[in-house]
Write a structure and sequence with these properties.
152 residues, mainly alpha, 6 helices, disordered C terminus
Length: 152
């Protein structure tokens, strides 16, 4: 196999998918949607550097993403009360609502594309992407945080 040619094709295809159904379905710039979704899922304040490391972004890229999300009113920054030199970010109620609405339409758009692949090809695609993610970030694939069960 020509791995360089495979790499070129992977880059073209992945950028096309990110700009296509994923980007337009979420109405956010590429990179913003995962950050907003992660912050909404976590529901807590986070240090931007930790957020960048967790999601696999460079710190300058995370700064640009957060600047854009702040300007849209989806995220807010504040100084850490314990150490005023540190900055924390958190999702706003508008950001949570936007993330929820856009997440639903994104899932529907991508589900439609996956169904066109068929069961076998869709499973194969997910398996390969999960392996590539693990290799790239040297960790297990990202999993949505588990919701605590309400015990009454």
């Amino acid at each position: 196999m020509d791995y360089e040619e495979a790499a070129r094709r992977l880059i073209v295809y992945s950028q096309g998918l990110a700009k296509g159904s994923l980007g337009t379905a979420r109405s956010l710039a590429v990179g913003e949607a995962p950050v907003l979704q992660y912050l909404a899922d976590q529901g807590t304040e986070m240090n931007p550097s930790v957020l960048a490391d967790t999601l696999g972004y460079t710190r300058p890229r995370m700064t640009r993403i957060l600047d854009s999300l702040v300007s849209k009113g989806y995220v807010e920054r504040k100084n850490d009360e314990r150490d005023r030199r540190k900055v924390l970010v958190r999702v706003t109620p508008e950001g949570v609502e936007h993330s929820k609405k856009q997440g639903e339409s994104s899932v529907a758009a991508v589900a439609q594309q996956l169904s066109a692949l068929g069961d076998s090809s869709a499973r194969e695609l997910l398996n390969v992407l999960e392996k590539a993610y693990s290799i790239t970030y040297d960790r297990e694939p990202f999993e949505k945080p588990k919701r605590k069960k309400n015990r009454s």
